[in-house]
Design brief:
Distance between the termini: 30 Å
CATH superfamily: Aldolase class I
Radius of gyration: 18 Å
Structural class: alpha/beta
Number of domains: 1
Strand content: 5-15%
Amino acid sequence: MNFRGVMPAITTPFTNDDEVDFEFVAKHVTWLADHGCTGIVPLGSLGEGATLEFEEKRDLLAACVGAIGERIPVMAAVSALSTRAACQIARTAQEVGCSALMVLPPYVHKGPMHEIHDHFAAVIEATDLPCMIYNNPIAYGTDLTPPELEQFAARFENVQAVKESSGDLRRITAIRALCGDRLALFAGLDDMIVEGVAAGAVGWIAGLVNAMPRESVELFDRAIAGDHRGAFELYRWFLPLLRLDTVPEFVQLIKLVQSECDMGSERCRPPRSAAVGAQRDGALMVIRNALATRPRLD
């Protein structure tokens, strides 16, 4: 597992009957691989993983592996209400051919940190797959500090990467100071990639890439190459779209971008619904302006 590059946290497509559209899944992940993405991350928050049944999760992972598993790795996002259920997902991900796990905190539960640590440890130990730890205190209400991440890295050989989504860039430099190159650091918010790379990130778990992989990969490549002028030029155009990933309705808005780019639909799984009202109107203005001024990339 090479933890590096742009790895989309993919959206989950649904049919009009609220079934997972596995045919589109295969088409979508193949398209992302064709545009230079270095891995695929199904079942995350953007993938509406909390609303998927176990069998749907299993079949979605299998569909991704079947479509692109020989080209780029599939890294299953793993979370559930219980540790037992999360470990079952982890083992199933290995059984269907996933190359790695992105380990999330448990849904809903915000207990004392020793319970959160035990949950992470159980999922990490459930398989021998390489693991990325996902830290997102804003969304999940639990925060793994740099010293705690250092402890996980020392304890578990298969912990190899961190998705850092606190929004505090000082976290990336703090983790690097403690762990050196032991952990591959990934930017976990769409609108922190250029700054994140400058601080030491070597990868990007991204959302808008679902609709715009070419621009996403180009932006990352310019940043990682140290092309500061070129990266900022593209970033300035992209930022209004990337900020759609940072609001509570990010699933609906990123699916709206996909729809406007003819690569997906707005359908979400209830109780989540498509964006409406002023938020939808504002997002469409941003999206259509971006599409009208889309830079030419040679």
